[in-house]
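Writing this down once: the sequence line spells out the residues, with the fold written below as integer tokens. This is how one looks:
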Amino acid sequence: MRYAQGSGLTPEEQQQRERLRLEAAGRFARGDRTEAVARDLGVTARSVRRWRRAWEQGGVDALRSSGPASVERLSPEQWELLERELRRGPRAHGFDDEFHGWSLQRVSLLIARMFEVGYTAQGVWKLLRRHGWTAQVPVEPAGEGGEEPVTVWKNEVWPPERQPRHTWAPPIEAPDTTSSRE
């Protein structure tokens, strides 16, 4: 998983990542090779090389977590209220199509309506992730509506109509193989 420092990681995940970096620092001090550290810690060699450069320039403190990359703009009370409203589902807030559920844009709009606080889609993703919410978790258990909604979804919603992709290059014309040689 690619990530920037603190981007959407829960506090527990940030602590785990910091523990890995600090363990790597101990291994660097012992002179362990990058590949061995990466293998033993279950991370990429590229991450270990980046950590090693930071360690060489700033010591162990350079590998400590600086906390979340962004400050949460909702108070704990506001988050509790938002979470209750999210659990009520999108229909309770005027989103009437049952097949789409909550999207990042819808949650952003709900936050703006409730608290007059603006969040980007990326900011909403980080906010939800920090609080343990994950993508594609249905509000209601699947299968409650029978086979008809599933069939409608398969036939009408997925896959969406797609336009052909446009490329910067002209299409390659196949050679004419219909003419015969005499």
Remarks:
- The radius of gyration is 25 Å.
- The helical segments are 11-30, 34-41, 45-58, 76-88, 104-115, 121-130, 147-157.
- The longest helix spans residues 11-30.
